[in-house]
Amino acid sequence: MPKKLKTSIAAKKNRLRRRISNGIGEFAGAMGLLFSVAVLCLTFIYVYSYLLSMPYFGIKEISVRGLKELTEKDILMLAAISPQQNLLSVNTEAAVRRVSANPWVKNVYVGRELPNRLVLEVRERNPVAMVKQASDFYLMDNEGFVFKKLGKGDEVDLPILTGIDGREKEKSKLLLSTLNLLKTMSASGRYNYLGAISEVNVDDIFGLSLLTDTGLYLKLGKDNYENKLKQLNVIMADVEKRGMRKGYIFVDICDVTKITITHKNATGRPEAGKKGKQYRT
Length: 281
What we know:
The protein has 281 residues and is of the alpha/beta class. The chain folds into 3 domains: 1-53; 57-124, membrane protein fhac (Ubiquitin-like (UB roll)), CATH 3.10.20; 127-264, Rossmann fold, CATH 3.40.50.11690. 35% of the residues lie in helices and 25% in strands. The chain contains 5 helices and 12 strands. The chain has helices at residues 3-52, 72-79, 92-100, 173-187, 225-241; strands at 61-65, 105-113, 117-124, 127-133, 136-141, 146-149, 160-162, 197-203, 207-212, 216-221, 248-252, 260-264. The strands form 2 sheets. A 9-stranded mixed β-sheet has the order 6-5-4-7-8-9-10-11-12. The longest helix has 50 residues, at 3-52. The chain is elongated, with a radius of gyration of 36 Å. The N and C termini lie far apart (127 Å). The model is unreliable at 268-281 (pLDDT under 50).
């Protein structure tokens, strides 16, 4: 056999042996890695199981925060967390789903504070008006979300919102502005001179109108509400001085340059002959 051919065969055999050796080495390395991963997993499972059985992590306190309408008892019943349950075994996502089933709950956070405290941070919906659907009244929050049918146990004193369909998914800009205004008015004492708002009408053409329990009917138009109410405060102070607050007052302040005031006494007869600053009537 020629020497060149013998050399070629020997080279091929060497290459084959190297490949087999490298393959065995890679296989052994892969098996070693898999074994290490399996050991780590088993170790983690053992440690986790051990931690779940430790009395050290048993729940000793459940803190519920952010409640106004709901009570701590309501939230704990919804959360359905067993007393002395291990803190690490609590399924927080399931607890969030259960608590969020209450219509008053806008969102909730469930967290752990090691070693033994569970925290439920609740954010409730803030109702600012009532809307009528069919023959029932429902609560609406400041985002235009109708979230709850008004029940006998709901002690709310809110204006009735008319002129809108609470079932519409897309809320108009005028409606959202109205709801934000109601939220601002309820949280501030600056508008007490208006009395309690009993009805609010939202009209896409004429804008916003308010009716209060003092007999004040107020047309605000479609924008710049807070500035208009500031000016109205001055006007109503003057009306008070003139003794015109008793009875029914209609104020059109859609255009602040042309404010119109109409006053009727309790018997429905218009007031006349008043001295002092006059308004368009």
